[in-house]
């Protein structure tokens, strides 16, 4: 398969440059075994639920198999050759994460089970140690439940207050409202880089500049942005960043927290147990160095290695090229959806916001999103319907849920057309039978 991206073989030179015309679906599709399957009634399966979880290229699946076939052992014990190899590969994966977000050191990367756990880690350690009654945490109306609930729990424990930044009329972050709500009481702004519903990229450099003027820190939930564009923590100026392997073509059960070293150093540990200690006595213990202080117990070793290979894969395809190709798909997707009568898309249109992610959450007048999703599923098309872990956002719009098609670089223009055609047929059928 000469056209597919292999981890052994590096990209041909002419493909290393950013060409906006590159059809990445053509180039990468054969790497994803799952995407080649046939759905019910012999139709090709169309996967458009990448914002919920990504599919995995065979390079990642092979890495998992290889780890268990050849190297499986517990890490950081150094007792034998298997443990040495497992530890080297595990720590190499940590360095790959650091490089992926341009962190200055792998010591700043803490492995967690997922992004939710990474946010809970910050709330339970930094939050408990630093926040007091009357301090404020600023969130936004577009946050995922994972970036709301841990802060509600923190507010209960410490008496800190949560405030929510509003949205503009077209469904983007309202920077004026953010400036209005920011004050000396604000200790942290925690927000998504890319909304998993509105599809807008938030202006993080501006947010961090505003926050730092008041001495507030910024936590960036980069779950959705990391698969779609290059992310550089030093350029964005954030203080914490969380990401999730399963949204990045990697295995489930793996996520990470990045924070500046001096912040991590000053934070108390999260969970207690093996691996996170230096010395244990009957009545007290001392903590291991960074990042191990935050990693109690045996980690998800194979999954970390798999995530590292997933990041290699995304780097080889090229985040700039992914972004450019997905912009083309976005324009096509919106062109087709905007032509459908009675369909309303949440968030900005590409006309309002040219740099918009390749996802569309929408409602159709008079129809329930679950019915739309179920009928499309019977045509072999996987989209999501519901609140997408953003109930407050849907409540803001006065709707219980929406249907959402979220694409990736593996989607083809033909799939976008077929999705739009099936959607028109679905809407017609439901209207006729309601
Ligand atoms: C998926 C997602 C999360 C949660 O990530 P997990 O790794 O599943 O815990 C948080 N925020 C956003 C924006 C997401 O898309």
Automatic annotation (TrEMBL):
Which CDD domains is this protein grouped with? SufS_like
Keyword Transferase listed: yes
Q: Which GO terms describe its molecular function?
A: cysteine desulfurase activity; lyase activity; pyridoxal phosphate binding
Organism lineage reads as: Bacteria, Bacillati, Cyanobacteriota, Cyanophyceae, Synechococcales
Show where the Aminotransferase class V domain sits. 46-419
- The EC number of this protein is 2.8.1.7
Swiss-Prot/TrEMBL cofactor(s): pyridoxal 5'-phosphate
Instruction: Enumerate the UniProt keywords alphabetically.
Output: Lyase, Pyridoxal phosphate, Transferase
Which residue stretches, if any, does this entry annotate as coiled coil? Answer: none
Q: Which organism is it from?
A: Prochlorococcus marinus (strain MIT 9313)
Q: What is the similarity comment for this entry?
A: Belongs to the class-V pyridoxal-phosphate-dependent aminotransferase family. Csd subfamily.
Q: Per its database record, what is this protein's job? A: Catalyzes the removal of elemental sulfur and selenium atoms from L-cysteine, L-cystine, L-selenocysteine, and L-selenocystine to produce L-alanine.
Q: What is this protein called?
A: Cysteine desulfurase
A single Pfam family it belongs to is: Aminotran_5
> What InterPro entries does the database record attribute to this sequence?
Aminotrans_V_dom, Aminotrans_V_PyrdxlP_BS, Cys_dSase_SufS, PyrdxlP-dep_Trfase, PyrdxlP-dep_Trfase_major, PyrdxlP-dep_Trfase_small
Name the Gene Ontology biological process terms: cysteine metabolic process
């Amino acid at each position: 398969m000469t056209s597919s991206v292999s981890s052994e073989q590096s990209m041909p030179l002419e493909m290393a440059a950013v060409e906006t015309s590159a059809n990445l679906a053509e180039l990468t599709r054969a790497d994803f075994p799952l995407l080649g399957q046939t759905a019910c009634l012999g139709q090709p399966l169309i996967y458009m639920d990448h914002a919920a979880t990504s599919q995995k290229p065979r390079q990642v699946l092979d890495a998992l198999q290889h780890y268990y076939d050849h190297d499986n052992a517990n890490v950081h014990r150094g007792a034998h050759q298997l443990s040495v190899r497992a530890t080297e590969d595990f720590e190499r994966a940590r360095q790959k994460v650091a490089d992926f977000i341009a962190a200055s050191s792998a010591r700043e990367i803490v492995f967690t089970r997922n992004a939710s756990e990474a946010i809970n880690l910050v709330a339970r350690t930094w939050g408990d140690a630093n926040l007091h009654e009357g301090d404020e945490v600023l969130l936004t109306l577009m946050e995922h439940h994972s970036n709301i609930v841990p802060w509600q729990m923190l507010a209960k424990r410490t008496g800190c207050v949560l405030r929510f930044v509003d949205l503009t009329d077209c469904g983007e972050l309202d920077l004026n409202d953010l400036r209005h709500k920011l004050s000396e009481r604000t200790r942290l702004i925690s927000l998504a880089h890319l909304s998993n519903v509105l599809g807008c990229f938030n202006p993080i450099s501006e947010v961090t500049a505003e926050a730092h003027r008041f001495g507030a820190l910024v936590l960036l939930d980069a779950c959705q942005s990391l698969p779609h564009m290059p992310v550089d923590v030093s350029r964005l100026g954030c203080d914490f960043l969380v990401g999730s392997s399963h949204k990045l073509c990697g295995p489930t059960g793996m996520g990470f927290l990045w924070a500046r070293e001096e912040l991590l150093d000053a934070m108390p540990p999260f969970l207690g147990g093996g691996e996170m200690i230096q010395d244990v006595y009957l009545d007290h213990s001392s903590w291991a160095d960074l990042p191990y202080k935050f990693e109690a117990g045996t980690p998800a070793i194979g999954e970390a290695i798999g995530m590292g290979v997933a990041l290699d894969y995304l780097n080889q395809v090229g985040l700039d090229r992914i972004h450019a190709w997905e912009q083309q798909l976005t324009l096509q997707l919106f062109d087709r959806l905007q032509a459908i009568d009675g369909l309303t898309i949440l968030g900005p249109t590409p006309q309002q916001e040219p740099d918009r992610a390749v996802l569309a959450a929408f409602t159709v007048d008079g129809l329930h999103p679950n019915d739309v999703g179920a009928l499309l599923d019977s045509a072999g098309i996987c989209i999501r319907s519901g609140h997408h872990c953003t109930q407050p956002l849907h409540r803001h719009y006065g709707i219980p849920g929406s249907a959402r098609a979220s694409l990736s670089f593996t989607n083809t223009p033909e799939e976008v057309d077929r999705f739009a055609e099936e959607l028109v047929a679905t809407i017609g059928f439901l209207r006729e039978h309601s």
